[in-house]
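Please predict the structure of the following assembly.
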Amino acid sequence: MNKILTVARKEWIDGFRDRRALYTLLIGSLFGPLMIGFMFSQIASQQKGAQEIKVPVVGREHAPILVNWLTQQSGVEIVDGPADPEGAVRERKVDFVLVIDKEFAGKFRDSRPAPVQVVSDVTSQSTRSKVSRLNSLLNNFSFETGSMRLMARGVSPIVVSALKVEQIEVATSQQRAAMIFNFIPMFLVLALFTAGMPIASDSTAGERERGSLEPLLIIPIPRWQLVAGKWLAASGAALTGMLLTLAVTLIVLSRLALEELGIRNQIGAAQIVLILAAVAPMALVSPALQMFVSCFAKSFKEAQSYLGLLIILPTIPSIVTIFYPLTNRPWMHPIPVLGQYAMVTEILGGKVPPPLSLIAATVVAFIATVILLSLATKLFSSEKIIFGR
Amino acid sequence: MIHAHNLQKQFGSVRAVDNVSFSAPDGAVTGLLGPNGAGKTTSLRMIYGLMRPGGGTVEIDGIDMASRSLEAQARIGVLPDISGLYPRLTAREHIRYFGNLQGINGPDLESRIGRWIEILGLHDVIDRRVAGFSHGERTKVALARALVHNPQNILLDEPTNGLDVMSTRAVRELIRHLRAEGRCVVFSSHVMQEVSALCDRIVVMGHGRVVAEGTAEELLIQTGMTSLEDAFVQLVGVPVEAA
């Protein structure tokens, strides 16, 4: 046990004296939370932007009644529209343009549908909510005017409403929050992978490259203890990176006005403990996997390029769920990476994953780690690995 | 005391080591002399237990390397062919790391480190990171960490290769010092002069075989030559490099 700690301490010190490793850890840990902060503030500014809209109008002289009505609505500002509305929208000079036809006045007076055009670009993500606000304003104007016309003719406006549609949203605000929080588990797992990487590769492939593996292996201690010590150091670094990411994420979330987005931030101490319990097993597996893979590399650089490919792994579930929304099922929980996503998403959605899931995930991670480490130990004893430089 | 019996090693179709046997007694320096590619490094790797012999046995102080490798390895100190250091650790940290791994801790370890600083003259560099060390300084650190546990048997693979004159002298003095302490020292070299100057016994290797064994005088008598260099050429069939 002492020997394992000696190896772990040496690799830890050696690892943290490496500037590259330190920067990798910092960048890997801070990237995610800052991304989340950026995404939230983007959404917030878009929502704000939807309530206050600036409407460029072409041909306002044809419909003073509509323009006046619009100006009276809260958060609406009317400006003069561009000469070429379609061109301007296509080139994204303006978000959208309201074009009032010159026949408007005549048709409106005759109580016939008066033509107006909304020029917009559906591919422009940021303008969509503003365009839908304008459309609903125009519908309101249409409905109000129509109702008044019916009443003037002695008909109740109610008869034109054949349906009464009510939207009932079943997702709680917590679940909606969890949808946006989906990135948090990915960034936590990503931090584990990036932070553990430098020590995992330097203590295996780097040791081979420097020629320091041979003198180390001559020391009469069981190989598995050497491997365990190296793994312990890498795992500690991975855990540090993950904790840093979690801490910065929590700080970022506490600084954001999530309530304005209709999201309640209910990450309390209990949630933090649950998240740690769900993600920590991954800190066992990822360094073990990285060490095993690095054993095949002859140099630190070669190892880094293998591990660069390996880092795609934790992003797969996130990408897949964009196209095939997976329902959260308990069978996913024990599977490394997938389980972390499923469980953290549940926790952030205000639920508690079953204790059996947490135990199963830990047991599976432990078994996978032991298998990977014993394979790495085998490789450490192979003459091809020791002398093959 | 090191015994190697009929060591064999084959890489593909190449017989790198073919029936190599020799003994290295305590209190003496045994030199493995041979040109590059003669099988010296491969033989040493089998003796210190990192390479599994294709055939034959190794005994360290009577302990079989194959069946009791950890026990046997505890009795040796090795400077391998390429002895890499950790660039971000200091010289002291290197020696301390290996000392701890050998099971030596605390004040005992610190006093041993102090002794090695004395013997190898590491005073100026001991607390510096080894990244900027000269080749000689690196070799000294590698030697100190390899010998920190005071092993009875010492294997040095071309220890003076590429060293400057001063460092070479330091290594030679160390080898003499170890012999005076009654230890069993085996070192390999392709440099004739060095072997003849230091060694009590010479094992001449060529093409993976032991071609001759004995003291310098015995080798001269055996070959009927008047200089060791001629004897060497006669034995191996290749001229040896002059130092």
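Residues 223 and 231 of chain B are 6 Å apart (CA to CA). Chain B touches chain A at residues 45, 48-52, 69-74, 76, 78-89, 93, 97-98, 100-103, 129, 142, 145-146 (CB under 8 Å).
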